[in-house]
Design goal:
Tetracycline Repressor, domain 2, about 0% strand, homodimer, DNA-binding, mainly alpha
Chain lengths: ~190, ~190
DNA sequence: CAACCCCTATCTAACAATCGGTAGGCAAGA
DNA sequence: TCTTGCCTACCGATTGTTAGATAGGGGTTG
């Protein structure tokens, strides 16, 4: 295992947290998925709180990398915006999982401080990226861009939440289509 | 206490579940808020699962009653739609709490079956009411009304989720305004 | 080259706290 | 006297976390 163990813990922990949240994240179960014992996790992470913070930090870093890759792949900002819901969709396809930011957002009151900071950063990363694309696409006036970006972020996260509790991806797609028809997202 | 105890348990349980979810709902703590001992709860509810199901059932019943009252207060369906986000807003004002449907929706995988049913009913109640108002207001074609209704429900739940993790009601209001400007909600 | 040591990564075993839930008793009103 | 509503006391399971041991690899030293 060695240095790979830490990465394996982060990867499995992310999947577990997306399915069960911070409260449902279980050290023994997580260790079992990685193939080690629970005590061994403490060799890599000082506590459950710090583990969760590391998971959340890695999560927004991966998200940011993916968003930047999407942006660089299109010259049309509207094309980037059309692709934006795909991460959320993929989480549903991949084990009916939730966006980590949404789950931890729900549990926010019971979250340790270091985890809270990473959750906020995740939201900031998404909103900033959306804001830039909205301005490039000239879809809103500059002074409304941030609010509109946050509204889009919230709407898609909400669609994922609702679709998940039906375990039905088709209603996620239907909601995205509705957002497009209504004018919240570009068609 | 007597017959009032059951009602008090339901009321306190709802508030606790809106703040900490099903997993965070604690029998001892809940009993303490009501002024009884944890064991006494089992005189009124057979298990935590049945208690949570009763809380969720009461929740959608109260929601439905409020929605019907809103509808009867306005003759203009758009006026009803404008008032719709207020329940979600009030939960934030009242202790930064989440819609119970959203919290339980996040925890859906770990929910006992009877609770799941009530969560779905809550979503159905909201979507059905929104669908009726949208049709009355002639805001969408009939075949798209349900999808649009669910999209609005999801968007507002998402806005509440995002606003909660900032403990900031003003950004909730800003997102609702954005939805109106974009055309998702009537202005 | 061999003996030594130490660091890394993991283990077993256990602790203390907390959880949902149960058994059985007690008091009061019908 | 029987039912209702609550209690005390406890059980077993699970949780995050810690202490201490062990195995192996790499570097230093004789």
């Amino acid at each position: 295992m060695s240095a790979n163990a830490k990465e394996a813990i982060l990867a499995a922990g992310r999947l577990s947290a997306q399915a069960h949240g911070y409260g449902g994240l279980n050290m023994r179960e997580l260790a079992g998925e990685v193939g080690i014992k629970a005590a061994s996790i403490y060799h890599h992470f000082a506590s459950k709180a710090e583990l969760a913070a590391a998971i959340a930090e890695r999560y927004w870093q991966d998200t940011k990398a993916w968003l930047d890759e999407v942006e660089s792949r299109h010259q049309d900002p509207k094309a980037s915006l059309r692709e934006y819901p795909d991460t959320f969709r993929n989480s549903l396809v991949n084990g009916n999982r939730l966006c980590l930011g949404s789950f931890l957002g729900a549990e926010y009151d019971d979250l340790p401080e270091p985890v809270r900071r990473q959750v906020q950063t995740f939201a900031d990363v998404n909103v900033a990226w959306l804001q830039d694309r909205l301005i490039e696409a000239e879809m809103v006036e500059k002074e409304n861009a941030e609010d509109r970006a946050r509204a889009i972020f919230a709407a898609i996260a909400g669609a994922q939440l609702v679709a998940r509790s039906r375990s039905d991806i088709t209603i996620f797609d239907a909601m995205i289509t509705s957002y497009q028809r209504a004018g919240l997202l570009p068609q």
